[in-house]
Amino acid sequence: MGDFAYYVFCIIAIIVAVIILKKVAGCLMKSLLFAILVAILVALYFFFFRQ
User: The whole model's pTM is what?
Assistant: First the structure.
């Protein structure tokens, strides 16, 4: 019974880790896209609208 409980615990730990990683990666991707958008807007300002 000890080995079975250990394997169940490992499977649950892997599932929780995947869910947490998915949420963190999604947040990082949103932050990265926002940073790229801001960089593009700043570049447009300096290259086209600044005289």
Answer: 0.55
